[in-house]
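Quick one - first record:
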Amino acid sequence: MNFAPLPSVEAAAVPADALVLDVREADEWAAGHVEGALHVPMSDFVARFDEVTEAVADGRRAYVMCRVGGRSAQVTQYLVQQGIDAVNVNGGMFAWDGAGRPMVTESGDPAFVL
């Protein structure tokens, strides 16, 4: 069988105004996340799929992110199969942090990748 390569992008190349879809769990999100990201944990993904389809309804590309790229690759593959323009962020939040991209917390504490 031949599978198309999964669409992916480097963290440094994600546009500042992009729709970032964070599929990490709540504790990982709380430690630090991309400001303005849509948080839909992979464990809740099917139940909350409508939120994702609403966010991309205007044809926006979803930049899917987790900690290192494994969970987000699975979600990206699923989204692409549903006809949604989605790309996996290579290296996830570790790569985002490593590229010096900004992260925030809701508590105001310094953000870090859990």
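second record:
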Amino acid sequence: MELLIVDGANVVGSVPDGWWKDRRGAAERLRDRLAEHGGPAEGGPYEIVLVVEGRARGVAAVPGVRVEEAPGSGDDLIVELARNAAGRPCLVITADRELRRRVAEAGGRCAGPRSLPGRD
């Protein structure tokens, strides 16, 4: 099963819908959309991990979506998760260029936020 890691801060921040007023609520809406749609538009079975940081911490996991709170940098946790994917395919959803480079070095691949269903 492919590991799908979602950069919560980057994906939430990719749509100017008022997320900055309630970062945790925005992360919860993203989590719910991931649980409902099951991953990227391409389809496929995924273990979904949503990485949150800062004021988005405190988001609970739901069936189908594990939530990981970054103690510091969300990017550092994402790279660690990609590196520890245990040889299975790993896809990270982010538009962050530097994070994309680091994920590639860790053996993962990346797609942009628009690959998620329900994105404007």
